Amino acid sequence: MSERRTESGTVPGAGAADALTPAARRIVDAMSEAFGELGPDTDVRRQRRLAARTSSVPRPLASVGDRAIPGAVPGTTLRVRVYRSADTPRSEAPTVLFFHGGGWVLCDVDTHDGLCRELAHLTGALVVSVDYRLAPEHPAPAAVQDAYAALRWAAERIREQEGGDPARIAVAGDSAGGALATAACLLAAERGGTLPVAQLLVYPALDARLATGSMRTYGDAGGYFLTTSDMRWYWDHYLAGAAPTAYTAPSLATDEELRAMPPAYVLTAGCDPLRDEGLAYADRLPSARQRTAPGVFHGFLGFLGLLPEAQEALQEAAAWLREMLASRT
């Protein structure tokens, strides 16, 4: 049975309403005005430019650098960004493969640079952020294939190329990246590959049906930044008319498939349309710790300097990752 724990000690039931904190409300209102609601006439390139804006001051680390690793398609490469803190060992370092969010359409390693720096600082692990292919130029399953290619590279080459420990690899991701992190685990289990020792899933996007209680409470009504219409736009671009599968929408995975999954930490936001699909997925995993941060919205970890809830949630998740990676020798 998954452990559920929140700051207040309870988790809202499916469809139960939570209220944004005053600081979260100000951020949500400002973002909603800047981004608008996504729809058929939305210009993908414009949305990417908006998503690329950041005002955060990057945390200094021992080293940060881009690399090219083999891609899923023969003869191609993937860009990854490798982060080392002062605490990261030069050899046999625990490794976190990170997949950024953005609905499989927006964002990249640059938009999530600040979050990955904090993750490296808090865990002491070698953090590798993966710049996977985006829709609509590259619809599903391109991103899933890239995620699995990155996991295979880490399992086979992380020691010789980056000084990582192939026996201590975790996957992590936020939103769409959370779906890719767990999809990589599903593929590894199916193909007999190396399974990560842990997975950190941050408000993951797992269910293309858009029919949960939290989707109705927060997504249909609007006013919480991410809407049902937005999610439909992301899924439509990502799937491009194809039927969802367990790899593109992991909520469809069978109980038998999930029995092979590594321990998970599933972090959700109290005022997020995706909250209930994250809770439901955590309940189905053989070993999962779940935490819901009340009063915050989808994407709240992107505001570490403005929301104390974000810093607290990331610190707890990173502590769990550090523990999981340290216990595998």
Keywords:
alpha/beta; disordered N terminus; 18% strand; 329 residues; Rossmann fold; globular; 9-stranded mixed sheet
Note down, in words, how this protein is organized.
This protein has 329 residues and is an alpha/beta fold. It has one domain (3-326): Alpha/Beta hydrolase fold, catalytic domain (Rossmann fold), CATH 3.40.50. It is 37% helix and 18% strand. A 9-stranded mixed sheet has the order 1-9-8-7-6-4-5-3-2, with helices on both faces. Strand 2 and strand 3 (77-84) form a beta hairpin. The longest helix has 21 residues, at 142-162.
Structural class: alpha/beta
In oligomeric terms, what are we looking at?
Answer: single chain
Main sheet characteristics: 9 strands, mixed
> Could you estimate the helical fraction of the residues in percent?
25-40%
Strand content: 15-25%
CATH third-tier fold name = Rossmann fold
Question: Helix and strand string, N-terminal first?
Answer: EHHEEEHEHEHEHHHEHEH
CATH class: Alpha Beta
| Tally of alpha and pi helices | 10
Q: CATH H-level name... which superfamily?
A: Alpha/Beta hydrolase fold, catalytic domain
What is the topology, as strand order, of the major beta sheet? 1-9-8-7-6-4-5-3-2
Number of strands: 9
| Total discrete domains | 1
Mean pLDDT: 93
Question: Distance N terminus to C terminus?
Answer: 26 Å
Radius of gyration: 18 Å
Give the uncertain stretches in residue-range form: 1-15
Shape: globular
Q: What CATH architecture label applies?
A: 3-Layer(aba) Sandwich
